[in-house]
Specification:
By secondary structure, the protein is α+β, with helices and mostly antiparallel strands. The strands form three sheets. The protein has a four-stranded mixed beta sheet with strand order 4-1-7-6. Strands 3-2-9 form a three-stranded antiparallel beta sheet, with helices on one face. Strands 5-8 form a two-stranded antiparallel ribbon. A hairpin with a 5-residue loop joins strand 2 and strand 3. The protein starts with a helix and ends in a 9-residue tail after the last helix.
C-alpha cells in the first residue's frame, strides 16, 4: 500500500481521534462577571495587574464549582463584596477574544454589602464605583456594552464585544 492509499484509509480515523482529543482536552471555558450597582447606580469596576483596562469583577468558574459559587467567590476576592440578595442573570456571552470556546455568564447585583474597599494586591491594582457617564477612559468595550445593556434596558448582544 502506498502513502496516498494509507492516508486515505487512516485519515477518517485520525480526524475522529483529533476531534475527540480537542473535545475533551480543550473543552469549553466558562467565566462569570458581575455588574455590581450601588444605590446611586454606580458600577463597581476592577483593574487587573495582568491585563489592560477596567473590567467587571469576575473570573473563571473552577472545576466542581457552580456559576453562582464562582460569582460569590470572585466578588469577595476582587471587591470584598458579599451578596445579600439574589444575583440576576443578565445573559451568557461568547467571548471570541479569549478563545473560540469561551463563554461568560453576567449577573446583575443590586443587594450586597462591602465593609471596605479591598487593598491593592498582585491581581487587583485598582477598583472603585463609577457613574455610568464617568467610567475610566480605558474601560473595555465589552464592559461598557454590558453596563449599557443593564442600565439602559438594551437587549443583550450574544457576543462579548
Amino acid at each position: 500500500m502506498n502513502g496516498s492509499a494509507l492516508r486515505r484509509r487512516f485519515e477518517p480515523v485520525l480526524r475522529r481521534a483529533f476531534h475527540l482529543y480537542w473535545r475533551f482536552a480543550r473543552g469549553m471555558t466558562l467565566g462569570v462577571r458581575g455588574v455590581v450597582l450601588d444605590g446611586a447606580n454606580r458600577v463597581f469596576l476592577v483593574k487587573h495587574s495582568y491585563v489592560s483596562g477596567w473590567h467587571l469583577p469576575g473570573g473563571g468558574v473552577e472545576v466542581g464549582e457552580t456559576v453562582e459559587d464562582s460569582l460569590r467567590r470572585e466578588l469577595i476576592e476582587e471587591g470584598r463584596i458579599e451578596l445579600e440578595g439574589p444575583a440576576e442573570l443578565h445573559g451568557i456571552f461568547f467571548n471570541r477574544h479569549v478563545s473560540r470556546r469561551d463563554h461568560v455568564a453576567v449577573y446583575v447585583i443590586r443587594q450586597f454589602s462591602q465593609d471596605r474597599m479591598p487593598e491593592r494586591n498582585r491581581e487587583i491594582i485598582d477598583c472603585g464605583f463609577f457613574a455610568p457617564d464617568a467610567l475610566p477612559p480605558d474601560t473595555t468595550a465589552g464592559t461598557r456594552l454590558r453596563i449599557a445593556e443593564v442600565l439602559e434596558g438594551r437587549p443583550p448582544i450574544p457576543l462579548w464585544s
